[in-house]
Amino acid sequence: MIDITPNGTGLPGIEQLRVIVGAVMTVGLILSVLALIIAAIVWGFGANSSNPHLASRGKLGVLVACGAAIICGAAVTLVNFFWSVGQTV
User: What's the pTM value of the predicted model, to 2 decimals?
Assistant: First the structure.
């Protein structure tokens, strides 16, 4: 039986990599908020100008921005979940 677990100190630069990944997650969340604001504005302009194409693009943008925020926020939890699922196989 082989028992191997992740080693957080095995390579130099692991801590810096964690900092970089955290910063990228922060940028992703900030860009998701910006995209949500822009998409909501587009949706509002489309709805108020009787332009269904613009309104539907705004709605889609809101959904995509929310999906991106969910994925950015849940990335670590998802990876940990599937890691533990993989350990039971």
Answer: 0.80
